[in-house]
């Protein structure tokens, strides 16, 4: 019999229970016991859901209050010294490392002021992990102050009568995805392998003693271009993790092609392997060939990254081909990756068009998919499910919803001139200087201002029809005026309207474009307590009417300072949506570029001549391996941005923004934006600044972490800017935060921006005298 498994399940709860309780804990509204109880309740629900669906191999330790990689750093005591100087509970150490902590002293507690660790994208997904940070003084050990999380959660499930397979990030990936701390920049994290392996072994022994006979150990870095030195570490690592007192290991990879690193794992003493055959089905022959006659093959055939129904006919045929190679008793039908990246339950979507809804499968439905495929290839009668699935696939294939001939005709008109500014940047800069007359070290923000409870309440009222469109517009205009007046008061040079009308930087546009569907409860975790509802690209994309002009024009009408029009770029709209899987990413991005081109030109015609088109996801979309696919991507990704932004006059200043990725200046140069702003506040390596020292256009390196509640002082801003100016020319430097401010509260925003502007004024005085 072929068995079924999943690699992980969303931990957020169908109604965002985890977010609500976590944020209430941060605000002091609930106790730590309340927070822990909510986590326990969610875990129990998820395990029971999987058991009831008939999943054979159910994961544990896939739950986290913030990030699963950060959990491992806390457990293994990879905690930089700056977080250990305070008497914090383990959960508060976790949150301090994830989001920073700034707390005034009280009669019973000392003051705390620490920044967060660096947060970057998890491979090419929109999930962010907290990067492990090591130093020469890192002492790995099991940090048992709050128990041993993987063991405790395994026992928790066992007490419910559910046997689980614990999930742990493997040692090579854990180290390779980490970084050296700022006081140990000469340290290569992989050199710590011998130090961390005994702790892995101790953890595995405790799991075995608790009754875990098998552990899923994730090594996702196997889909990257790994140096030979890193490849050689797999044998060393897994030879050390074998023993009678240790559970068997199933080594898991996902998100790409493992074949270039296959020799590194071909002789590992593990019980089995998992591979992503949704992304790379053509790797089956080669990966099957490395298996011994006892190792299992976990076939990742149900997409853990997208929401389209699995084509049962194709998936069944693929699994049967795997069975033909290794035998039914050694095949497991699984999701391609953790279901962390998908919404929880399609049944929560009462407002979706039933025709379109029938094409989708969320995390809960994917449980049934893996079980059905496993049963079908095992000879059980699943004919009814196969027939229903075939009807859904046929409905989508033949639907007129997916095709718009006018969009396809316009797509064919794209050429080089359509995606090139009229003159090069130096010529544009000369006329823009004359028009805007900005001071040295111009200050701005990235776009959004705090989304207060009042904003959310009124947006909800308007959505439900309890206030009129006129009443809602009056409310929004009042919020815009508040933001404009604040920016004038604090002394910012280029203003924003604050985006009070926007629910999310991608969802807002998806709801106004043809070719998208959107959900009511399709939440997916992006990081910590930040969840998004990705729109779904269901067909060819076009813009039926202006999306942002009204609010931007109103904001500009009440101030003499330039106000930026704010748009989300084509690649980010695509990457932060669930894309189509029946046409290429290039086609979808260029369609979005054309839709945004119309919006950019309408903004310019309405007098908005500073326009920011954000592309934080452009690095995220980069194929994980070097080669033709990567170079092709870079070409069409940059082209889609230029299609959106090149139809303007030389005096119109195009901005773009990038955050939470390891950026290559060459990727940004290809966009030809006049001004770019880049997340920078958590970068410790001075070489990162050097990489941008010859960037030809203007740049703002973000100066404070907007995902943290802490407030930098003026002196901290000054010190940060001084370091930047050692390698970057003052004449080209803008002063701005890391990202938008929607998740922050007004008191911290006001104080942080005031200190930032004061630092800019300090440098103006210094450089102008």
TrEMBL record:
Cofactor field: Zn(2+)
Biological process according to GO: L-methionine biosynthetic process from L-homoserine via O-acetyl-L-homoserine; methylation
Presence of the UniProt keyword Glycosyltransferase in the record: no
Pathway: Amino-acid biosynthesis; L-methionine biosynthesis via de novo pathway; L-methionine from L-homocysteine (MetE route): step 1/1
Binding site for 5-methyltetrahydropteroyltri-L-glutamate: 19, 126, 576
Active site: residue positions: 707 (proton donor)
GO MF annotation list: 5-methyltetrahydropteroyltriglutamate-homocysteine S-methyltransferase activity; zinc ion binding
Binding site for L-homocysteine: 446-448, 614
EC number of the protein: 2.1.1.14
Chain positions recorded as L-methionine binding sites: 446-448, 499, 614
The Cobalamin-independent methionine synthase MetE N-terminal domain, residue ranges: 4-323
Entry keyword annotation includes Zinc: yes
Keywords tagged on the record: Amino-acid biosynthesis, Metal-binding, Methionine biosynthesis, Methyltransferase, Transferase, Zinc
Highest taxon above the source species: Eukaryota
Ranges where the Cobalamin-independent methionine synthase MetE C-terminal/archaeal domain occurs: 441-761
First-level EC class: transferase
Cited Pfam families: Meth_synt_1 (PF08267), Meth_synt_2 (PF01717)
Cofactor note: Binds 2 Zn(2+) ions per subunit.
Residue numbers binding Zn(2+): 657, 659, 679, 739
Job description of the protein: Catalyzes the transfer of a methyl group from 5-methyltetrahydrofolate to homocysteine resulting in methionine formation.
Database matches in PANTHER family: 5-METHYLTETRAHYDROPTEROYLTRIGLUTAMATE--HOMOCYSTEINE METHYLTRANSFERASE
Record-stated family: Belongs to the vitamin-B12 independent methionine synthase family.
NCBIfam families to which the protein is assigned, alphabetical: met_syn_B12ind (TIGR01371), PRK05222.1 (NF003556)
Identification of the protein by name: 5-methyltetrahydropteroyltriglutamate--homocysteine S-methyltransferase
Organism: Scheffersomyces stipitis (strain ATCC 58785 / CBS 6054 / NBRC 10063 / NRRL Y-11545)
Gene: MET6
